[in-house]
Design a protein that fits this description.
The protein has 731 residues and is an alpha+beta fold. It has 29 helices and 14 strands. Helix 22 (532-541) packs across helix 25 (604-614). It is globular. The two termini are 53 Å apart.
Amino acid sequence: MSHLIDLNRTKGFRKSVTMKPELATIEKLLVSKENVWRTYVVRWKLADAMPYAVAAKPAPQLGEKEEQAQAARAKAELERLKKEYRVGDDAEALRRFKAEYDATTAELERQAQQSSNLRFVEMPPLTLDDQLDFKVSTLPNGVPMVGSTFENMTSATVGIALRLEGAPEDQLVYLSMLPALLTQTGVIKDGKPISFEEMTELQRKEILALDSYFSTDFKFNRAELAVRGSGNDLGESQRALEWMKLVLRSPDWRPENLARIRDVVDQTLSGLRNRMQSAEENWVNDPADAFWRQDNPLLLTTSSFLTRAHNVHRLRWMLKDAGSEADREAISTFLSNLAGAGAKAKRDELKILLGAMQGKSELIKQIPASLLPYGEEFTRLARDAGAIAVDAAKDLEQLLADIPDATLPSDWEYLARQIRHDLLIPPPEVLAKLNAVRQSLLRTGGARLFFIGSPASRTGLEPGVGALVAGLEQKPLQPAKYASSKLVESRLRGRIGEKESPLYVGLINPNTQGGVFLNSAPSVSYLEADNREAILDYLASRLYAGGGAHGIFIKTWGAGLAYSNGFRGSPATGRMGYYAERTPELPQTLSFVINELKKAKPDPGLVEYAIAGAFGAFRSASPYEVRGESMANDIADGLTPDVIRRFRQSILALRQDQKLVDELFKRMAVVYARILPGLGVKAGDVEGGIYYVIGPEKQLSAYEEYLKTVEDPSVRLHRIYPRDYWMPLKF
């Protein structure tokens, strides 16, 4: 959309879709010796206004003001209703308003009712990308490649994915930010270091893009390191392959480049730590998915930002220089002693100590007596050791938000000991281990490639692809053995002293007023084309999903009880779910959804709607690169087009069943009850069910009371915290 807006701003009737004239003008300005900025600063009037900066800082009192303002608005609205209905009783005014609201809702629903005459298309797409021209081939050394060709493409993309199962569990800490370390630290080319700045400038001139990332699938336990390069033409694409080889084989991880490596680590850590500060839709699925696959350390290492944040935090301290022998000894002793502070003070008192260590002079006199020895020991540290202690104080202060009061003493002790342990590892040893992990991934076993471009580009890139693969060691993948325990549950049980697995969990998020639902349960997968019962349940779960006027999404949104919300589910993941974010009160939203479903009546038109929803996943309109890489990922997971086709044909066969309407509506309540506590099915009876919410303590407390009324008075909503996702150092 933004590109179309930019095109609209260009003059003339005929416009270049690629904006070639505009880009040529910009290139001309950039290569000229003239300082064009003087002209444009004046033209854009950038120097006419006084510069200013904007900063944001937390203010807990704003939450209280917001609650007070909300209560005032509710009171004012109630007074307005009493005046409108000419009554003096609050309850009577609300009763009349509800009756009026319900009558209006009923009329809107009548007008929006799905016509039973509407039918889904007779010949829907039977795969996720019917038009894609792709071919699976095997390179000379046995590495598979999925090539997707488009006759009209001038650009080309090549990617390589390397399975990560070979990394031992005690080395997973080095994996969590491997993609950034490969592409953002510079490279060694022909024995000469090329800095990240030079590398960026060269890539800007030579290629279209170079990326590295983790490619994962939670259903199939796939975790890979992917590197992808692309060019606007054959020449650029060939150079992109060269850059791919450089970052995979020769990243600049020398001790001489530690300054840049540390910068990348700090930037990555900052981004991970700030994830929960952003809008809910940007991050809430991550911890819920991680809770689902908490039995897979590799997926947590690569895909859970809460797990990755602790791993990167550890890597940051491993790469820090502990200084001279005297400084090492001093900071080691200080951190060893500091580990005991958590058992001698409360959270606020520890914050005072940490603030004083960071130079906040107004806090020095407020240090409680129990913590004075630590403050005094800090002041005796030499300059360099003191600077390290300040960094430790900053980290400890930030990490306090991830820790509950119940485990504050033990978690504080762990963090102080962990920082000390990792700090005392010489950075060259850490770089050597990073390199060893990287090199262990460069093998033919577990490697695969994908290509997207024209047939001519594929032919032209064959030598470069061959050279890329030739650099891999001819060796099979040897999966490492990982602990099979569930990380989050085990850390939770260790915290609360219980042996049973929790049924209901809530991630504490003090940064918001609202709550989030992320409930899910097993459903049908693409691999179950012959499982008629599971497919019928899946179709039943689609009846009130999606964006239809009758659906839960529109009704909940219209009632102001959630923003993004509704029933989810995909045969790709083999799970169904209920999602709702920004709920004013968790039990209120859930009760509304349940009541709407209870009022639902069988409607033949909704069966066609459900079938249409089952065919809603397709990629034929996506960019070429997305289509090609997604097909390669599907094939790696065993989801070939034939598998998808068989599944969708099974749905079309059920469509002919004259009793399908009755069958789906008979199942609907039972199916939805698996993900909606209070609709009739007990959570303990749903094998593989996950009942996960996110919110502040106020939201979780209200939800826990609701669960006690609809499930059992003994039900508990177990609070979990970011620290429960840490993969702790084993001393």
